[in-house]
Design brief:
single chain; about 425 residues; alpha/beta; eight-stranded mixed beta sheet; two-stranded antiparallel ribbon; disordered C terminus
Length: about 425
């Protein structure tokens, strides 16, 4: 193949032009259906941007061109001659070639499940069964029933990509590796042409003799499972599996219904994540009997320090320096020292009856985080916190005084706190 990078760039531009059409989802799915029918493999992840074209084989690149040309005619070569990138021998070979699937026997698919409606079942699925289905092209990403795709600009080129948060995928993978991920559900919809589905009442199984499944909820979990199972074949985990036999219209309605669920506040949800190393720091401050804040932090007691608000202070100040539990244990010492210093200096006397103000909480958290970041000694952190606490009334009023963290409030306070740190250095 000649001029591959130029070929990939121009093919992406063709996909982008198709996406400007109001009926782009149907057209993109038709491109993949042509390849599946003729060459026995799905290329949808290259079409929707889940995979880079640089990962495709030369045969797949040709099949993508062939399928788009089948839709667009010779117009595809108007700005770039795609056909000139392949030799006559390559064209002859790829035209009739069919992909060899890594997993020859995918069907029948069998799932232990419970039927809850004529077209809906609930069961379980292992990562290995999901992986086999992926290799066997039994699962696809259907643009008609998934979250909307979006445009991105990369190296000056505007590209069309599905809404995949790669950071979320990696976070799920890390939790899978650490055995801290709590398995939840993945939803698959059997909605191919003439799906052959049977429910075995005796064996309590749903049996799929044929039919491709659309993944309509849990795509990030699916991607994380596939990546982790590929790299670690001995990895094992099970998930709750929702299986539907919905029409496209009903599948879309299901997704809309899922989206209407009341969502938990993001800050609160983050404060519940036990895999977050800053979670350890906040809870340690509350459970350590030698901590000045021992027993004063709680989620559901308005008479004590609000857990979520204080967690946000700690999380925001330490998120760039505390990435794992080992580092969190060292950072905790710096954080605790900042609070201990002002109590030992008799600047404050905190108790459940006389709680620290949010201004005081933020001040100690910030000084502790800066001390840890700069590698300051425990004595230096103590002196810096004491100096800042003596001048705390000079600090202007901000939303943080009410426990509400905002970037604007943070910047106003940092201006004063950094001034106190400089005063301490001069002394």
């Amino acid at each position: 193949m000649l001029r591959r990078k130029e070929y990939e760039r121009n093919l992406n531009q063709i996909f982008n032009k198709i996406c400007d059409d109001s009926d782009f989802k149907t057209k993109l799915n038709n491109i993949d259906t042509y390849i599946v029918t003729k060459h026995n493999v799905s290329c949808i992840e290259y079409i929707n941007g889940a995979k880079e074209l640089s990962q495709a084989s030369v045969a797949e690149l040709y099949w993508l061109y062939e399928s788009v040309r089948n839709q667009m005619g010779d117009e595809i070569n108007r700005d770039f001659d795609f056909s000139s990138c392949f030799s006559n021998a390559e064209v002859t070979s790829y035209r009739k070639q069919k992909a060899v699937k890594e997993e020859a026997q995918v069907y029948p698919l069998r799932f232990s499940a419970m039927q809850i409606a004529d077209d809906q079942w609930v069961g379980t699925i292992s990562n290995h069964q999901l992986y086999d289905m992926y290799l066997g092209q039994a699962i696809r990403y259907n643009l008609n029933t998934q979250r909307p795709a979006k445009y991105t600009t990369r190296n000056g080129v505007r590209e069309y990509r599905i809404s995949l948060n790669k950071k979320s995928v990696q976070e799920i993978r890390k939790q899978l590796q650490d055995h801290t991920f709590i398995p939840n559900d993945i939803s698959l919809n059997i909605n191919a042409d003439n799906p052959d589905v049977m429910w075995d009442w005796n064996g309590k199984e749903i049996i799929v003799e044929q039919g491709v499944m659309d993944i309509i909820d849990g795509y990030h979990r699916f991607k994380a499972i596939i990546e982790e199972t590929t790299e670690n074949p001995n990895f094992e985990v099970k998930f709750v599996l929702n299986i539907m036999n919905f029409s496209t219209e009903k599948a879309c309605n299901y997704i809309a219904q899922q989206d209407k669920r009341n969502k938990i506040d993001k800050k609160y949800a983050k404060s519940l994540d036990i895999t977050n190393p800053r979670y350890y720091m906040v809870n340690r401050l509350n459970e350590d009997v030698t901590s000045p804040l021992y027993g004063m932090i709680k989620k559901d007691d308005k008479t004590l320090i609000d857990y979520t608000r204080f967690f946000t202070f700690v999380d925001k100040n330490f998120e760039n320096t505390v990435k794992d539990r080992i580092v969190a244990q060292r950072a905790y010492k710096a954080l605790k020292q900042a609070f201990t210093a002002v109590v030992d200096a008799d600047l404050v006397q905190w108790s459940k009856e006389k709680l620290p103000t949010y201004r005081e909480l933020y001040l100690c958290t910030y000084i502790g985080s800066k001390g840890f970041e700069n590698g300051s000694s425990m004595q230096e952190i103590a002196l810096q916190t004491i100096e800042a606490m003596k001048n705390i009334e000079q600090v202007p009023s901000t939303k943080i005084d009410n426990g509400q963290f905002t970037k604007q409030s943070e910047q106003r306070l940092i201006t004063y706190y950094d001034r106190f740190l400089q005063m301490d250095k001069q002394d």
